[in-house]
Amino acid sequence: MTGFARAERTLGAHRLRVEVKSVNGRGLDIRMRLAAGLDALEMPLRQALGRALHRGSVTLNLTLDRAAGGSGLRLDPLALEGVLDALETLAGRIAAEPPRLEGILAIPGVLVTNDGADADEAALAAAVLEAAGEAISKLRTARQAEGAAIAAVLHGHLETISALVARAASHPARSREAITERLRGQLAALAADPAIPAERLVQEALLLATKADIQEEIDRLHAHVAAARALLDEGGPVGRRLDFLAQEFNREANTLCSKANAVDLTAIGLDLKAVIDQLREQVQNIE
In principle, which of 3, 22, 61, 198 could form an S-S bond with 142, CB 3.0–4.6 Å? Predict the structure, then answer.
């Protein structure tokens, strides 16, 4: 979900520059820094970003520069006339020295900056939104290129997970003979305790039999692999759904480790957890 893009427009003596960058984020977090006087464009810019992006921490910077050679200040005739009329009205009522020129020019509104003031507001807004649209489109292209590269990595992790699950499914410790022998030993140890009633032995036998079987975990892991591959092939904003699947992968791997009745099978479960952690880290990088 990382990327950076820039777009510029020239409008009369002004140059607009829109920069958009994004980094990883669980949801869509939009932050903006707009040039003075352009705050009214915040909402349409947010809407444009919301339509184009679904995840990530996104920052949009909008700057407005006046081209060299133009004056940075201009006199507002209406404001000046208002100040002079007020001074004339007060001249006969208050005994005071007439104000100096620099004092009049220091009154707010008499001198104003040219940062966008002499540009047509509608044309300026249109130029900003056009430049923002171009920058957002470039950002999406950059993020899609990154996503395609990460998708290849995720497919590799899924292949590894699938192979490990197949190894667990065919492990000798899962044979009927191995499971039966293990259950016999555990039940014999329980039966040696005369304090345990017969009905308790039956309950323990059922519990041990349930814990000895990891077929349910293997089936769910295979199903999660198929679902993750389908999401990657689907494309679009699938990051959150893949994040949920990664959590489910981890849950099944933990259960498999807890049920393992052989050191080699436990090792497979630990390898699964390591690959799943790598998968979860990469999922955070996609939309």
Answer: 3
Residue 116 near residue 124, CB atoms below 8 Å: yes
Which parts of 67-124 are beta strand (E)? 73-75, 111-113
Residues of the chain with confidence (pLDDT) below 50: 68-69, 116-118
Residue 93 is given by DSSP the state T
Separation in Å, CA 56 to CA 38, 143, 181, 194: 24, 10, 53, 62
Same domain? For 157 and 216 the reply is: yes
Query: Based on the domain organization, do 190 and 224 belong to the same domain?
Result: yes
Based on the structure, what is the number of domains in the chain? 3
Residues 133 and 162 in one domain: no
| pLDDT tens digits, 168-209 | 888 776 655 666 666 666 666 666 676 766 666 556 555 555
**79 and 199 housed in the same domain:** no
pLDDT in tens, 226-262: 999 999 988 778 888 999 999 999 999 998 888 877 7
| 177: Cα within 13 Å, side-chain hemisphere | 2
**Matching residue, tokens 């390591």:** 274
Q: Which domain holds residue 216?
A: 143-283
Give the closest residue to 160 by CA, choosing from 52, 25, 277. 277
Task: Determine whether 251 is exposed, middle or buried from the number of CB atoms within 10 Å of its CB (0-12, 13-18, 19+).
Answer: middle
**Residues 155 and 133 both lie in one domain:** no
Q: What is the DSSP letter of 194?
A: T
Asked if 207 and 270 sit in the same domain, the reply is yes
